[in-house]
Amino acid sequence: MKRLRLVITHYILTKWGRRWKNRAALEQWQEKRIRLHVEKVRQRSKFYRELWAGIPSKEWRSFPVIGKPEMMENFDQLNTAGITKEQAFAEAYEAENSRNFKPTLQGVTVGLSSGTSGNRGIFLVGEEEQAAWTGTVLAKLLPGGLWKRASIAFFLRANSNLYESVKQGRLQFRYFDLLEPLPRLLTRMKEYQPDIWIAPPSMLRLLAEAQQSGEMNLHPRRIIAVAEVLDPLDRQQIEQTFGQKVHQAYQCTEGFLGATCRYGTLHLNEDIVHIEKEILDEKSRRFVPIVTDFSRSVQPSVRYRLNDILTEAAEPCPCGSLFTAIERIEGRCDDILYLPHTADGTHVTVFPDFVTRAVLAASADIEHYRVIQHSLTELEISYCTRTGTDQGTEQQITSELTRLFARLSCIPPQLTFTAYSFVPGTVKLRRVERGWKP
């Protein structure tokens, strides 16, 4: 009962209880919460206590920025539950291998991050934090309210007690393992007939294709994309197939960072996290988020630098939210391409979105694509079209990319074209990927 009360409390707080007159009032409220949070973390986490030695809590913006390597290297001293990295990895790998995601360590849920960049991380969530997360997620993503019946289908490579906690009262929840064969997943979907679908965009595309081919005839009330970048091509195909907006949840190891409003605009969850912006390109409004999550204390994230590229919206969202609106999550910093400048050979930054726009501008017949940079001078493009791969499309893609490289004053790389192939499950889909280190 205590847990259910916590869920409902956070649902109500998120839905109706937290209101600010303006952005300044929101930021003042955040400041108070962060200072209190920092004091608690300083007392409970040996790592942070030593890292912040000599810096008062009111000057928390002067704390050193950390990233995934520092968090994993100091995991034993950073978390406040007394759980070692060895224990956590053993628990998480056992769950992945057995596909039984129920067990906990000392009442703490343990999970593995998906490891897009090749280095898998661990996340810990305490019981109270789990209840707070559940109430917040339901308030931000659930259409129709907490007391209306809904059936949720959740597709991911690994389940968790955290996700299962969404099952409340009239809400049904079923986990769909991405490692299962697609025909089995489609059969389960047809039997379950869920209202709300939560899945990576690559899986949502497969569901859309099954709907188009007649293998499936389902009508979801809401579709929510998670875990992968929502590419414009995927968004268009999914929305056209099901006749509705694709919503997004920006959730990662470091917290529940964003969710879409009723207009489909992604807003940062600034009622539970503070985001500093490390500007990548001021003109295009691109930045890397530095996260301080003041809602979690078992595995604290204070001034934690993510590896994501976000583009801030140019105009306020019509929903009126004070929370920062995001035009697009573009990808990872690891997937920024680099090409030599025509004048002096210095590296020119090519953001993933530049490449995406060029490929999609080449032909309206392109259904799927991937672009992988293998070296400073090699670019592999795999794609498929509605009519099958053809020489004309290759020429059009080459032409669009050549124009892009000329505009950026880059030496064009050698282009290699291959057949498109990707199966959702073991890895995330990255439409644009850098496969080498400069």
TrEMBL record:
Signal peptide: none annotated. PANTHER family: CAPSULAR POLYSACCHARIDE BIOSYNTHESIS PROTEIN. This is Adenylate-forming enzyme. It comes from Paenibacillus silagei.
